[in-house]
Amino acid sequence: MSDQILGVIPARYASTRLPGKPLALIGTKPMIQWTYHHASLSKSIHRLVVATDDKRIHEAVIAFGGESVLTSPDHPTGTDRIIEVAEKFPGYGIILNIQGDEPGMEPNLIDGVLDLKIKHRNWEMTTAAVPFASSEDPKDPNKVKVVFDRNSRANYFSRSPIPASFKAEATYHRHLGIYAYEREFLMNYNQLPASDWETVESLEQLRALQNGSTIGVYLSDKANLGVDSPADLEVVIRDFKAKGLI
């Protein structure tokens, strides 16, 4: 069981709400470069690659000095793209999936997810969550919610507010798009039986949960905004300017 960690950043050009998203400029650099840069600051990742089916993204990554792998354009999900890349790098026992639209991803958060995975090699996956900010609406279906037990194991993920504020005000946790997988589990992920939870919520991770796998949740006290829309991109640009990054 190898302790070597491969970081993979899947990046697609097609996006319903923001076409060409990985190449959207934040300052003078494309978003994918910022994601790659911040992920590379992790103390835990041994190798970092971008997985893309688009030559424009591939060439942009090569141009800034990153490592990129061209993948099949026919993958139905990001997990399938990760599996293809993992097959090309057989010596890595833990595979980390970092979304390409997380330009401000904190290295400490990455390390927290990986530390939890390393401590629990019997857990198939780990991921991350952060408490909802007062400005965020738990009813927003684009902000995925997660509930987890006192041992940091996920109980459920939903686009609806969970838990429901029925008799008292609930505390909500926003799921963050980062996953660390045990290699063997990842390579057999597509063999898991189909999940009706996954279908109704349109959330891939529910397939693992409904089939009895454990997903550990690293709870961070804060997380920078991912980019799902042009409005999100403007918020990130303002944030980067305020921090003096651009």
What labels describe this entry?
seven-stranded mixed β-sheet, about 250 residues, single chain, alpha/beta, about 30% helix, globular
> Helicity level, as a percent range?
25-40%
Oligomer: single chain
- Average the pLDDT over all residues and give the rounded result: 93
Helical segment count: 8
* Low-confidence segments: none
Mass-distribution shape: globular
Major sheet details: 7 strands, mixed
SSE topology string = EEEHEHEHEHEEEEHHHEH
Terminal CA distance: 42 Å
Helix/strand structural class: alpha/beta
Strand content: 15-25%
Radius of gyration using CA atoms only: 17 Å
Which strand order does the major sheet show?
Answer: 5-4-1-6-10-7-11
Number of strands: 11
What is the gist of this entry?
The protein is α/β, with parallel strands linked by helices and 246 residues long. It has helices at 31-40, 55-63, 78-88, 107-119, 183-187, 196-201, 205-210, 230-242, and strands at residues 5-11, 25-26, 29-30, 47-52, 68-70, 94-98, 125-131, 145-148, 154-158, 173-182, 215-219. The longest helix is centred in the middle third of the chain and has 13 residues, at 107-119.
